[in-house]
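Section 5.1 Outputs to date
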Amino acid sequence: MTRPTPPYCCALAVWEGDTRHPQTCPEARPEARHGRCPLTPLELYAAVDARRRQLGLLWWEVEVQADISNTQRERLRAGRPSAVTRRRGEEWLRRQAPPGGSD
């Protein structure tokens, strides 16, 4: 099994025959990030959850705003989102201004 050479997305890299969860890969650790990688599914879920809590929203409100179902959110939480769910979660984060931002 050979590892690809940079630039590659360390958080999403899957090597032939490698069955480990991306979170166990040393290159997937946040401190090893080189800034070009998108969030892993679990990091995306954590970011959405943190923003949801800041805004005082319930999960169903996030689901409606992001146009995802409860099942899609649960798959994101489990680390198995579809490309559509990932994109909609990232778009929702970009649309939500942090509370206390510039007026």
